[in-house]
Amino acid sequence: MKTRTKIIVAGTAVVALSAAGSGIALSSTDDDGTEVPITGVALERATAAALEATGGGTVTETEQGDEESFYEVEVRRLDGSSVDVQLDEDFQLVEITEDSETDEGDQD
């Protein structure tokens, strides 16, 4: 009975820590309210996935834990337009949308 109790307590602790870690990882801003860029190997994988999804271009900005997906990669396409590429935690495409911030700035 004591071994079973220990296993249950340990399992509960693992679940609680995993949930807390997920909450931290999904946060889109750091303590001072700024966006958290993608870094390291995740940046390389997100960049490759975004450029493949858009047919090429230049990555101009990244964000981890975006409100719309796990990763967001802003790409300036070869034609000059900008899009936001939303990726899940496995770097699979969720959605591509026109970058509204760039669109607003381009209007004269």
Provide a descriptive summary of the structure in words.
The chain has 108 residues and is α+β, with helices and mostly antiparallel strands. The chain has one domain (2-106): SHC Adaptor Protein, CATH 3.30.505.20. Helices cover 44% and strands 23% of the residues. The protein has a four-stranded antiparallel beta sheet with strand order 1-2-3-4. The radius of gyration is 19 Å and the shape is elongated. The N and C termini lie far apart (74 Å). The relative contact order is 0.12.
What's the short version?
The protein has 108 residues and is of the alpha+beta class. It has helices at residues 2-26, 40-54, 100-106; strands spanning 58-64, 71-76, 82-87, 93-98. The relative contact order is 0.12.
Return the string of H and E elements: HHEEEEH
The strand line-up of the biggest sheet is 1-2-3-4
CATH fold group: SHC Adaptor Protein
CATH hierarchy class name: Alpha Beta
When the domains are counted, the total is 1
**Helices and strands: which structural class?**
alpha+beta
Task: Name the overall outline.
Answer: elongated
Percent strand equals: 15-25%
How much is the average pLDDT? 78
How many helices does DSSP assign? 3
* DSSP helix fraction: 40-55%
Number of strands: 4
Query: What is the correct CATH architecture?
Result: 2-Layer Sandwich
**Assembly context of the chains:** single chain
Radius of gyration: 19 Å
* Largest pleated sheet: 4 strands, antiparallel
Uncertain stretches: 13-30, 102-108
Distance between the termini: 74 Å
